[in-house]
Automatic annotation (TrEMBL):
It catalyses: D-alanyl-D-alanine + H2O = 2 D-alanine. Catalyzes hydrolysis of the D-alanyl-D-alanine dipeptide. PROSITE patterns: TAT (PS51318). Belongs to the peptidase M15D family. The lineage of its organism: Bacteria, Pseudomonadati, Pseudomonadota, Alphaproteobacteria, Sphingomonadales. It is an enzyme of class 3 (hydrolase). This is D-alanyl-D-alanine dipeptidase. CDD domains: D-Ala-D-Ala_dipeptidase_Aad. Zn(2+) binds at residues 148, 155, 214. The active site is at residue 211. It holds the Pfam family Peptidase_M15.
Amino acid sequence: MHCYPAAAKIGLTRRAMLRGIGGAALTGLVAGCAGRGGASLAMPVDPAATARPDLVDLARFDPRLRFDIRYATPANFMGRVLYPLPRAVAQRPVAEALVRVQTHAEAAGYGLLIFDAYRPWRITKMMWDETPPDKREFVADPASGSRHNRGCSLDLSLHRDGAEVAMPSPYDDFTPAAYRSNTAAPPEALAASRMLEGWMVAEGFVPLANEWWHYDWADWRLYPIMDVPLEDVTAG
Ligand SMILES: C[C@@H](N)C(=O)N[C@H](C)C(=O)O
Ligand SMILES: [Zn+2]
């Protein structure tokens, strides 16, 4: 579903981003969009989120990072393209911390492989709507929003000389194999996951228990939930 009102694409989204009120300003647009398809749900606005969004383009921010933006391809759990371009953006402090993690990884002979960063709220809603109830522990509820919507979550793995490192499960494997408590995976995969976790935690990220690939920036509550389409994000 693409439901990006033309009038909102440039003016409102950019103005909203500059003012740091992406969530509140876009609520009506999202509600109208959702209303065309199925159940209408307005994007939540978090009054406690007072920080001004400052999204940066991760590829430009640190050219050492590698990307495999699965949601810009059909090779994802939804089975279709969700993003119109393979772009990863995140709040500046998140990106700064990620650079430090990349440096830790490099010192050990690895590099970071980014699967996803900022995710517009409407994509979270699509994921929730199309995920069976018994698998919804693996997707955020759009009623409260995802930390990805705040530009504060990262889905990532490791690579070694460009080759993806084996982890306890594939990315977005919605089974208990993805849990950090999974000890049945091969020892090398568990060690790789733990190694990444150690570097991420050291630089201010909080691991999600159910998904070895997902990390939240500790200060995610400061940033508003946003629904700016990826192609419209004004990033430094
Ligand atoms: C869908 C998966 N990659 C993910 O990011 N899940 C968390 C819980 C989220 O949707 O925020
Ligand atoms: Zn995630």
